[in-house]
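#lab-general

N.A. 3:47 PM
ok so I finally got the sequence cleaned up, no stray characters, all 330 residues accounted for. can someone with queue access submit it? mine expired

B.Y. 3:52 PM
send it over

N.A. 3:53 PM
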Amino acid sequence: MSENNDLPWFKFYPKDFMGDKNVQRMSPLEVGVYIKLLCHQWEAGSVPVCRETAGRIAGCTTEEIEEVWPKIADLFERIPNTDEMRNPRLHKEREKAIERRERAKKAGKASGRSRSSEQNAEQNAERPVQQNAEQNAERPVQQNAEQNAELKGERKGEPHARSVSDVQSTEVQSTDNQKTDVQKTEKTSDSSESALASASDQVRANTPAKKKKKSLDILDVFVQKNEPGEIDGGDVVGLWLSFRDERPPEKQLKKQGAAAKRLADDYTPEEIARSMYGIQYLYPHSDGEAWDLFDLERKFQKCFDQARSEIESNTLKPEIERTMEAIEDL
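B.Y. 4:20 PM
back already:
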């Protein structure tokens, strides 16, 4: 019955666990074995019915598993037609976690397809502009070539034999035209460089500076104001908006509502706040794209772990600095 699911953690409710009458009657050894078997069930999907095998999983001796088995076995239900058993409460939590993971995968794929479509639309919209620019750039060259051809009498219908005065007049006119063309080209080049410099300045002016990351203290306010099980999608969207420089279009907000509702249903306010703290260190991407709630849902565990890593790093940093100062004093 074992199956390899990428579920590195599960929700643990201390109040429910400590308030369970079965747990209250357990010895420390029984509690330890019980928790180890729950962890095994989370990873594998079930626990062997064989007490000796279960004892080895829990790290017990034969005598110890014989002692604790009567109380432990009552907390698991045998799976029909198998030699496995599982705890009903943990089984439900595991099924919900698998469902959340599958939803996150689908949401990630849908988000990727949507972004790809938007990029293609932008590229298609830019092509006519680029083609027009290339055509406009070619026109002066083509006009100059036609003028020179006319001056040299190479166009059809014009006589090839001309007088010396006509030739001299033509050469003078051609020289004047070439000077004019050079002046026009220089002006066009100067104008293009000026326009390019102006556009670059405008892009730099409109490029926002690197946004300062939200502190954990600010996110803790969200946790203090909301009790577990009492938040809804609107609360999650509101917290997400506090990370953005400007409010997105209403159409995008409605799309975020679906992911926000799932996050509110599946996680506690503290888990959501910590994951939003962690995702700041994973985004924006190299292309500057901001994160949304679908990104948070899809990479929730990674964001949560990142938050823990950053918190530990920020906690240890002052201690490391003090240690280095003490070493230097020596």
